[in-house]
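protien #1 (seq + structre)
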Amino acid sequence: MVDMQVHLAGTADGISIVHAACQAAGVPLDRAIQAIRFAELQHREAVRQAEEIESAVLKGTSQTFQFGNLSIPTEHIGRVIGSGGSNVKHIQDRTGSKIIGLEDGTFHVFAPSEHAVREALRMVQDSLPPVVKEGERFLAKVVSIKDFGAFVLLPNKAEALLHISQLAHERVRDVSDILKVGDEVEVVVLGSDQRGNIRVSRKAALETAPCSGAASTS
């Protein structure tokens, strides 16, 4: 699991925004400094790449643009772009920005003002699925039943897969024997698959104390 995510934004003159999100209870200062320094190196490389892109994208215009960038897990690129590019187009229309996504998960943002850059980056970040931690416990609601399991909705509105193998300690032949749409079921987060989909377990929840509807704390 990732302990800390660092997002930077700025121009070729330097960094103007630093945003750090800690996934754990805390991060040692030396590790935080190391992460920021590493992100700064990535920022410099992104600026170099962006300047090359900018010369092509903005060729023929005299307008001055601000620049920012954000790196996301590659499995979430499709979610940020949206069907047929719909989400990126929406962000561009709302902020007056130009957004360029790369295969490594880096999104470059060009906009007429720093405020527009910040807003576009925020909207890109908001497009990502909610973050949950492995081992967290939730009271989830069943939203659909499949042959291979059920999809449940967590309290933070994130959808998760409850695989048939994680329903009970004994073998389950039919998901409908245990669950139906609308049921509330206690689950424990197992993690995420390669596509970023959250996986949960009812079987693990049966082994620990019941929850009250919110994530457990340790």
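ok now protien #2
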Amino acid sequence: MANSAEFFQCGPRELISIIFESCKSGRDVRALAATCRSIRAIWRAMPSRYRLAWGADIVCFEEALIASRTAQVIASSVGRDGTSCAGLYPGDYSSTVKEPTKKDMRAVFGLDRMAAFLEREFCCGDVSLPADRRFTRGTLPEAPERLLEWSWRVRKAIYRSLIVGAALAPVYWEPLRQAHADPDEEMQRIGPYDLELSDKQIRFLTKFPVYNLAATSEEEDAAFGQTARWIVQQIMQDHTAREEMARRFEQCSGRAERCQLEGDCCVRLLEVDGSHADAHFLAWELAQILWAHFHIDTCIDHDEYYEAQPVPEGTVGGRARVVLFGIFGAEDLIVPELDLETHPLINGYNVPQPSLGTSGSSQILPNSGHSASFIPYASQVFCRSGIPNMSTEFGQLPPLDLKWFSYTFDRFLGVQFKDGMFEPAPVNFARRFFEAIAVFAHDDVAGRQLCNPDWGLGSGGLVNGVEILQASQPTDDLVFESMDSDGIYPFW
């Protein structure tokens, strides 16, 4: 024991650093750092000290770190000219590029608390759990011993949705920057609170691929390609999960069962190497991000007419700076520390970031979205641009704010959203997908089967993502139909 203590006090710093790096958990790192002043001094001198001490204890730490760093870049850019975040590449913000700082860790802790609340909200809302877990409100989505595995899946989708939102923010801000630089005063009036666009303003916005339903593949690749390729690369680097999907195909079980039995599958892997099982794995992972995006959006109130409220004393559990996919502007969310049974998750407690040309404010507002919101423009352009937005046979095309998903599915899997998926109806296919949490369910639980799309995607225990897709194909029956923007995608 004496020799051991003497080694840690006098041993080579390089060797002690390796011992720190070899610790299995953050708790072990913190315990070792607390043994004596000499050891603590070595730990404090290590650039990786924060990642080692706390990173291993945070679910999906790397994704949370990238989400927090990219959100900070967007928040710092808005209010100036926004150019500093142009071409934002998520890979530049990983811990392998720069070790996390104390400030980074505070931001990650905030996101971790937010994600924990979102997990609970996802299950407390009006969603269908797998049949074997569907008994009473508050029932866990999976058995307790496998809940962490489920949590990793959900949180990874949450953080990836936020990362994509931040990475695409410069693309969605570009029309506003150019509009404000235009000598035409009508163009200069395009701004976060100018929600009723003129026909001339709409024609201006459709020059940009994010607002153009008929954008060319080259234009979409310039806007979405870098972010899509990074996400696909991250997904395909999970070799353990890919091997699990491959085993499902070998055994004709779980999420592979329908493809194996029916054949003639629509997904095929493009631009990256891999098997058909890998194509299914990629489709499933992208579907999880899509599901998370929709449900995060339902948990945060961006109604501009919502009456501002102060945060009740003693309710703050932490702050989380995020860039939501579909909003594409930085927000500070205040996460309450109350039970969800008696207190809403985040709704009504948001801090807006400044819009272009304005200064920040410490006032707590519920409607932070319109400080940098893309959504109001998307619906108006969709409904009034004159660019075809309908199929005469299958109804409405996918919404503009899902263009990144449409691009990624088509580019890397050769598929598109199912015809008629977004057609307004009491029960449409998109609603079926979003009302079931089966896309995250474990597929090796006895008795669980794939949902039957004809009965609804909450009819069983599993969704593999392919249910909402079909092979990409040119559509010759597209027309433009003018419509009320308040009436499109009533569930969206």
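The longest strand covers residues 316-323.
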